[in-house]
Specification:
Layout: E1 13-19, H1 21-25, H2 28-37, H3 51-71, E2 80-83, E3 89-95, H4 99-115, H5 121-134, E4 150-154, H6 159-172, E5 177-180, E6 184-187, E7 190-194, H7 200-207, E8 214-218, H8 221-226, E9 234-239, H9 255-262, H10 264-267, E10 269-278, H11 282-285, E11 294-298, H12 305-312, E12 316-321, E13 324-328, E14 335-339, H13 352-367, H14 372-381, E15 394-398, E16 401-406, H15 411-423, E17 431-435, H16 443-456, E18 459-463, H17 474-486, E19 494-496, H18 499-509, E20 515-519, H19 524-533, E21 537-538, H20 541-552
Parallel strand pairs: 4-8, 4-9, 5-8, 9-10, 10-11, 11-12, 16-20, 17-18, 17-20, 18-19
Antiparallel strand pairs: 1-3, 2-3, 5-6, 6-7, 12-13, 13-14, 15-16, 15-21
Helix pairs in contact: 3-4, 4-5, 6-13, 6-14, 13-14, 15-16, 16-17
Length: 553
Amino acid sequence: MLEGPNLYFPRAAIKLTLDIGALSDVPTRTAQAFARRIGLGQARPGEPGTGFRQRFAIRAVARLVRALAAESGTTRLAVRVRPTSDPHQIVVAYPWRHRERAQEMGRAVAEVIDALPATDVDELMHRAAERVAAAAVGEGPRTLTPGVPVVAVTGTNGKTTTSRMIAHVARTNGLVVGWSNTDGIYVDGALVEAGDYSGPSGAGRVLAHPEVEFAVTETARGGILLKGIGLTRNDVSVVTNVSADHLGLQGIDTLDQLAEVKAVVPRITRKGGWAVLNGDDPRVLAMRTVIKARPWVFSRDPDSPAIREVLNEGGRATTVIDGWVCVVAPNADPELVVELVDVPMTLAGLSRFNVENTLAATSAALAAGIPREVVAAGLRSFRPDAEHNPGRMNFFSIGEVTVVVDLAHNEAGLEALLEVMGGVRRPGARLLLGLGAVGDRQDDLIERLGEIGAMGSDVVAIGHKQHYLRGRTVAELDGLMRAGAARVGVEELESYPTEVAALAALVGQAQPGDVVGLMCHAEREDVFAWIAEHDGTADDPETLGGKVRAAHG
C-alpha cells in the first residue's frame, strides 16, 4: 500500500509483485486464449520461456487489471507494469481511492494469474470481478497536504547534512522548524521522537506538531518504494546526488533505476516552487525534464554547462566564484552570499562533498524565501560537531591525534571521509581508518569499500556492525572487505567485533599528528562516550581551522 506519491504515480497506489511463471510457461494456445479473453486478440504471445513471452506477459497483466476493474465497475484505471531482474516476476501498480476495494482488486489479479493455465478463463474472471464489486469500499489515502512551507531533501549521500543545514538556517531566521531524518523527529532543535523517520511517517509526524512553521523532510529511497511519500507536494525539493547504494533491493538494480526513485521528490514540487538539483551529477540534472517546478542547480564549477543551460531556461544557480558562494540569475551579476572559508562544514573549502552540501542548502534556503544575510549567518554558525550534525564528519582531538566520525556507508561516503581526513593531516602523518559495511549491500560494493579504504589510508582495520548484518554473517562481510583490500596489495587487516573496539585499537597505535577515521553506523553514542572517557574533546571551528592551516600552510 503506497500511501502517497511514489515511483509509479503522483498519488497513492497499490503495488503488486507478481510471479508470472505460470503465464510464461503455458502452451502458446492457452496464452492466445487468455489474450482473447482480456481483449488482446491480435497479440502474439511467443513461445514459452522466451523474451517475447515475457513482453506479452507484461501487456497481458496490464490488460487483465483493466479488464477486472471495468467488469467490477471501475473505468479508466491507470496501470503501470515494470519488469524486474527476475524474468518470472513483474511489478504492477495502479492508483487507489478506496483501501479495501483496491486491495481486493490486487488479490483478484493474483488469483487469476495463479489459476493459469485455467481452461475457463471467462468464469474465473467473472467470479473475481464480482468479489471486487462486492468488497467494502474502505477509507481513503492518508496523504497530507501541508499548510506550512516544506523543503524535501533526497539523494544517496549528503541528504542528512543538507537537511540539517537547511533546518539550522531556518531556525536562524526565527522560525519554529520541524524536521525528520534518519535519527528522528526534531521540533525547534529538540528531538521529540527517536528512530528512522526518513519515510512517509516522518513528514506526517512533523506536520502534526501545531507549532511548526517550516518543515524539512529527509526522504530515503526505501520509504518511497515501500510506502510512498506522505505529502501531496513540497515547496522546495533538493536532490544531492545519485550513487551506488542499496542496489539489488525492492527491484532497484541499477543507478538509472535509483535515479527514477529519487526523482519522485522533485516531481511533486509545486509548480511555483523550486527543484534544487546537483548540476555536476548527470542523472540528477536530467530530472529537470520531469518537474513542474522551476529548476535551481548547484555546481562547484561556475562555468558548468548545467549552469548555462538552466539559466537559459530562466532558472537559478548557486556556485563558487573566487572563494565565495554565489547565486546567479539570468542576465544579472552574481549575488555574493558567504565566503567558503567562513563556512565551518567545508574545512575552508577542502571538503568537496560539504561544499556541495553547502551549495545545496544555500539554494534551498533562498528558494524558500529566507533572506540572504540570514542564510549566510546560518551557514557560518553550523558546525561539524555532535551538536549540529551528529554522526556526520564530527571532529575530535584526543591529545595530538585527530578523530573523525562519519556514517560513510557507501563508496561516495567513504571517499568523502578520506578526503576530509587528508584535509587535516599534518605533513608526514598517517591516516588510520576503521572500515565497516552494512550487510544489505551487493558483494561488489562491499569489496569496493575494502579497496577504497585500503588504497586511501596507511592503516586499516575492520570494525563490524553487529546490528546491521541484515542476513549476512560477520565472516562473510569480513571476507568481502578483505578481498577488496587485497586487490590493492593490502593483505593484513585486523578485525574487531565492534566499531568502538576498532576505534580503540587505531587510536592506541596513532602517533601525534595522525588522523583516525571511523565509519560509524551502529554505535554512534558508544563511540562518543568512548572518546569522552579518553579525554577527547570536540573540535570547535577555531581548532579545526588551525588543523587545516597546519596541514596546508
